[in-house]
Amino acid sequence: MTIADAHIARKRFGQNFLHDPRIIAAIIQAIDPKPGDRIVEIGPGQAALTAPLITTIGRVHAIEIDRDLAARLRERFTESELAITEQDVLRTSFFALAHQLGGPLRVVGNLPYNISTPILFHLLESAEHITDQHLMLQKEVVDRMVASHGSKIYGRLSVMLQARYQMERCLAVPPGAFIPAPKVDSAVVRMVPLQSAAVKVRDWPIFAAVVALAFSQRRKMLRKSLATYSAMLEWETLGIAPTQRAEELSVDQFVGLANAVASLPLESRQGIEPRFS
Ligand code: SAM
User: Fold this and answer.
1) Quick one: which of 21, 119, 129, 170 has the fewest CB in 10 Å?
2) Which tens digit of pLDDT belongs to each residue from 53-94?
3) Nearest of 156, 173, 174, 95 to residue 128 by alpha carbon
């Protein structure tokens, strides 16, 4: 295939290209790019968002896994307009990128939906190097991200992300805005990392492990799902009843619970596999 041929969307890379000019304009408006912004785009594809971003701020850094698309983008834009890192975003260090570009990043992207949750957790690890994120995801995933406790869709994703970001849904996007059209509705979410003083989690791997364990059996009482060290926790001081279920706990209560686990002596934390994502 030559560059002159039309690109055929690759399912394995989650390629659904935006083509509706009104939706593209609304996303750019939500991002509100300003000259001097260090914008990093995940998956520029055929430049539906990249081109208007370059027009506004002059230069974009993009991460694209598809070699053919990267080659096409290099044909279309100069190196000073578009710097392309040709690799898997999950292997990209946003810390190193922020260092290289000289400060915190603004991350944007119409994400490949097949790996959107791993991307969210990967970005979470670098939250301190990111000013904000505007991401297009499956609407159902965005609904779970912003869900409150007590809701049926409140879960691990809601707790992990709400403990680190202020989030809002900016835009709903119908399947017809893409070629090829996905089978699901989409939405754009704005995620702003909380200031460090507002982040109350003491130990992220333990927080992640406690949240994962509690939701691994979401209908079970916490004293069962967290049985290994339940007896060592001062539930009353935490303001949590051991008979409560994961979906009933607020994000703050989860943070308190995980911080209490983190302060237990090391040997009593057995059964907790520290993990980040
Ligand atoms: N931004 C374009 C648009 O809005 O039309 C394309 C969006 S398309 C949903 C997802 C893009 O992410 C594609 O360009 C795809 O090749 C790229 N992509 C998929 N998996 C990736 C990965 N692991 N790392 C980097 N880019 C990836």
Assistant:
1) 21
2) 999 999 999 999 999 999 999 999 999 999 999 999 999 999
3) 95
Nearest CA to ligand 1 atom 12: 43
Written as one letter, the residue type at 49 is L
User: What's the number of CA atoms in the CB half-sphere (13 Å) around residue 43?
Assistant: 24
User: Does the beta carbon of 49 lie inside 6 Å of ligand 1?
Assistant: yes
Q: Is 275 among the domain residues? A: no
Please state, in angstroms and rounded to a whole number, the distance separating the CA atoms of residues 191 and 162: 9
Domain with 136, as residue range(s), is: 3-198
Say yes or no: 183 and 85 in one domain: yes
User: Do 190 and 220 lie in a common domain?
Assistant: no
For residue 119, give every residue at least 6 positions away whose Cβ sits within 8 Å of its Cβ, in sequence order, or none: 42, 89, 90, 109, 111, 112, 135
CA distance 27 to 21: 10
C-beta 15 within 6 A of ligand 1: yes
If asked whether residues 192 and 226 sit together in one domain, one would say no
Instruction: Tell me the CA–centroid distance for residue 275 and ligand 1, in Å.
Output: 27
- For a ligand 1 pocket test, name from 61, 86, 93, 110 the mutation site with the most ligand atoms within 8 angstroms of its C-beta: 110
Q: Mind listing the pLDDT tens digit for each residue in 254-268?
A: 999 999 999 988 777
Residue 277: inside a domain, yes or no? no
- Residues recorded for the chain: 277
The CB of 63 under 6 Å from ligand 1? The reply is yes
Name which residue sits closest to atom 5 of ligand 1, judged by CA. 17
117 CB within 6 A, ligand 1: no
Cβ(110)–Cβ(18) below 8 Å: yes
* DSSP conformation class of 8: P
Which residue among 150, 177, 198 closes a domain? 198
